[in-house]
Amino acid sequence: MTTLTPVLTANWDRPDSFTLNGYGEYKAAKKALGMDQDAVIQAVKDSGLRGRGGAGFPTGMKWGFIPQGDGKPHYLVVNADESEPGTCKDIPLMMANPHSLVEGVIITSYAIRANQAFIYVRGEVLHVIRRLHAAVREAYEAGYLGKDIFGSGYDLELVVHAGAGAYICGEETALLDSLEGYRGQPRLKPPFPAVAGLYACPTVINNVESIASVPSIIANGADWFAGMGTEKSTGFGIFSLSGHVTRPGQYEAPLGITLRELLDMAGGIRAGHRLKFWTPGGSSTPIFTDEHLDVPLDFESVGAKGSMLGTRALQIFDETTCVVRAVMRWTEFYAHESCGKCTPCREGTYWLKQVLIRLEKGQGTEDDLTTITDIADNILGRSFCALGDGATSPIHSSVKYFRDEYLKHFEIGGCPFDHAPSTVWGNA
């Protein structure tokens, strides 16, 4: 199987892919700045591009929410605070092809009538920050940023801003608070950022991959993009395969491809082992098992099977992995990264962590499974942002698919994978 659609990843093998010389002239931006702004928005709407940051909201529709003629400055903020366990597409994209993002920023800012844009990057990835700074500097020197871009009369200033390493700042309103210099905590909505975002002005917030996909849409046309993927999940996306796979990495393919097809291209599960469970969109999406190998990886199909496509972070786990321990580690992460603003998430993730630690040690009882699902139920839909909801996903799905494995911990008084798995589980 070789169904790949290298667009964003097309030049990653070039040693100078991250330079302006390796990327080429900003032809799509020049074309866009010669179009009517509403026509640019309509082209993105017609393409069917949906947000590549996890939620899958139609990108053109989000741009269209920005009020026009309101007399206020408009802002574009690129969410490059990639922090989800398993998600690893935006950082290599910005490392290998930062100019696709910068060009996408120009087109998007023009379309929404913004003269100031920000790229908010996770602070720990210093190498990425330096590369973005270099790309932005090259764009300014070439006249692609700043005053009178391409002689169009359009002005745009772009700032690369480094965060301070808080997962919660990947939530769009917490990101805005952080960008304004406050502690990153989610805002109560409404008002939504399109009406009152950065500095209480209309703001569009999009993921790195979403914005980087825009130049190819403008250059090749909406129909070209819509011709890939599925009817409702159009286009291509970067699928990040990690874990127990022979050739982990980034695979850019049409939405609707299956894990079975991706594994064929990636050399399959590591030699001598078999697939046990996997995440379709990072640790905050309900886990799947080997029975879901042929589920089309698009928003609708994955949702119909009880999970979310998310960021297409395909974490692959074979039979040597303890599900309880994996869920415990994810839960420890969410408890640590909860901002503490709302009680369900702050208290719920703490107690989920405590109970799961006990369960993993084999010190719990079957009643504890009811306890953790009850706690998860009391978090789900009751927190300010999606962090709380995401923390419940591995809880509910792991108990659903691997209840027997939880029970095995109680039976032997510890984790069966601390013993020889072959003697405890047979060929499981």
Q: What's the structural blueprint in terms of helices and strands?
A:
Elements: H1 20-23, H2 27-33, H3 37-47, H4 59-64, E1 75-80, H5 90-96, H6 98-111, E2 116-121, H7 126-141, E3 146-149, E4 154-162, H8 172-179, H9 193-196, E5 203-207, H10 208-220, H11 222-226, E6 236-243, E7 249-254, H12 259-265, E8 275-279, E9 288-289, H13 299-304, E10 313-318, H14 323-337, H15 343-360, H16 367-379, H17 386-412, H18 421-425
Parallel strand pairs: 1-2, 1-5, 2-4, 6-10
Antiparallel strand pairs: 3-4, 6-7, 8-9, 8-10
Structural class category: alpha/beta
CATH class of the largest domain: Alpha Beta
Distance between the termini: 28 Å
Order of helices and strands: HHHHEHHEHEEHHEHHEEHEEHEHHHHH
Number of strands: 10
From the 3D structure, determine the CATH topology of the largest domain: Rossmann fold
Based on CA inertia axes, which overall geometry fits? globular
The CATH architecture assignment of the largest domain turns out to be: 3-Layer(aba) Sandwich
Output mean pLDDT. Answer: 95
Q: Taking Cα atoms only, what radius of gyration do you get, to the nearest Å? A: 22 Å
State the helical fraction.
40-55%
Q: What strand line-up does the widest sheet have?
A: 3-4-2-1-5
Protein name: NADH-quinone oxidoreductase subunit F
Keywords: 4Fe-4S, Flavoprotein, FMN, Iron, Iron-sulfur, Metal-binding, NAD, Quinone, Translocase
GO biological process, one term: cellular respiration
Organism: Planobispora rosea
